[in-house]
Amino acid sequence: MRSIGVCGVSHSFRRWLSLGLVVSLSLGAVACSQEPPVASPNVLLITLDTLRSDWIHAYGFQSENTPVIDGLADRGVLFENAIAAASLTAPSHGSIMTGRYAREHSIGTLNGESRLEGVETLADFFRQAGYETGAFVSNVVLRRRIGLDRGFDVYDDELGKSEENRPAYFERPAEQTAKRAIDWLTKRSGEKPFFMWLHLQDPHGPYTPPSDYEGKVGPVPLRMKSDLSVLNRNTGQAGIPAYQALPGVADPAHYAGRYAEEIMYADYWLGEVIKTFESRGVTREAVIVLTADHGESLGEQGYFFQHGQSVRPELARVPLIVVAPKVAPRKASDLVSHVDIVPTLIDLADLSVDPETSGISLRSSFTSDRTLDSRVVFSDTEGESGLYGQNRLTRVLGSALSSRAVQPGGSIQSESLEETESGAWRPVQIDTSAVEQISNYLDRAVELVPVGAMAEEHIEQLRALGYLDPEVGPDESNSKTPAQGTP
């Protein structure tokens, strides 16, 4: 898709960056928004935090812990091979909202210290088309300061609950976010179509579902059978991250069960929102897209209950389900990415825009497989970039990889992996062509845009998450790089 500006005025994204301009497109979007066609559908985009696809019943999980998500899968297209653009929350959502990979937008691979600038978002496109737009988010790194609020009439990021293990870190449980979203939905008159983004924090750790969900799934055995000790930090191998610690609990199977129960809790409240969403669209058709920002390590490579430390499949594979009018239910095996969500929703809503993205509309995959056999997609985190092909992954990682591109004087390693019939991933000979593609991708990385000095409250929240070094203060909050592998 090519790039267009506000009200159809062509522009080059890189030209804006090279000129160093910071342009507010949202004001122009309001001024020139169009009246939408009567047939325009209502659109709901759902992102769940830290949800592995293989812990959803529709994707093969043994417990029936996700009846609502399963119901969406029964009505739409379930993509079996969807890859997250990043294994951290802010970068992946930047890609979901722009259709650009993490190193192609100004959030980059940082998680709370950089903001989106110089590019229009999915909400911009819907608002320009005459839609009402609302967003309801639950994670501190998605607060409006990172720029994802652009294009939204309402951006609800009030976080009122403190974590049990980290009093300085505020989040919002699924019930509270869902009720705010439901309230917004019930106030829509129906005269205009609406686009809503719902982000639920659950099942992000610590895994503390409400008491009436505890025990509904029970312990889920992992490869590690013995008890784990609690680490003195939020990342690391062969232990329970400090922020995940549950009092008196050392059995990894118990933590895994709590993870599944948090998914069940989020699934219930997701259902309440969907019921309200569909009840408001009596005269309009509905489009629903569900995905997750990234997965979670549950013992792979010795990492437990954390994410962000790599782009391996346990962190990169996410659910992607599309429900739309006249789209028959099916499972699609094509390799797809977060960056495909923008062009797909533009296509399904028939918006008159053609933005420059790295994604494609997935309409062809709604009816047949094997249309994207040669496709490759990128996935990123701090210090690492990966290239996924069909059942293959090549990773480039090391100290030379900053949040943006390759830095002189650092080390770089490469690794290629291949998925076996059993689902395991084994090392294979380095794919030099894939390494070259990653190198070219890194070379075209755009400049990171700092968020500006942070309020002390936000610094404490990010520090509690492990996103900032302990010594970072308000005036230097943008000069520090978050620790790799943060929760």
Order of helices and strands: HHEHEHHEEEEHEHEEEHEEEHEEEEEHH
Biggest pleated-sheet summary? 9 strands, mixed
Through-space gap between termini: 34 Å
Per CATH, what is the topology of the domain at 41-361?
Alkaline Phosphatase, subunit A
Helix content: 10-25%
Per DSSP, the total helix count is: 11
Q: What kind of oligomer do you see?
A: single chain
Shape: globular
- So what's the CATH class of the domain at 41-361? Alpha Beta
Q: Supply Rg.
A: 21 Å
**Number of E-type strands:** 18
| CATH architectural category of the domain at 41-361 | 3-Layer(aba) Sandwich
Share in β-strands: 15-25%
Q: Return the structural class.
A: alpha/beta
Q: What's the mean pLDDT score?
A: 86
Low-confidence stretches: 2-31, 472-487
Corresponding CATH superfamily of the domain at 41-361: Alkaline Phosphatase, subunit A
Description:
This protein has eleven helices and 18 strands. The chain is α/β, with parallel strands linked by helices and 487 residues long. β17 and β18 form a beta hairpin. The model is unreliable at 2-31 and 472-487 (pLDDT under 50).
Describe how the helices and strands are arranged:
Layout: H1 13-19, H2 25-31, E1 42-48, H3 67-75, E2 77-83, H4 89-98, H5 122-128, E3 132-136, E4 154-156, E5 161-162, E6 170-171, H6 174-186, E7 194-200, H7 252-279, E8 286-292, E9 297-298, E10 304-306, H8 313-316, E11 317-318, E12 320-323, E13 330-337, H9 341-349, E14 377-381, E15 384-389, E16 392-397, E17 413-419, E18 425-428, H10 432-443, H11 456-465
Parallel strand pairs: 1-7, 1-8, 2-13, 3-4, 3-7
Antiparallel strand pairs: 2-11, 2-12, 5-6, 8-12, 9-10, 14-15, 15-16, 16-17, 17-18
Helix pairs in contact: 2-5, 6-7
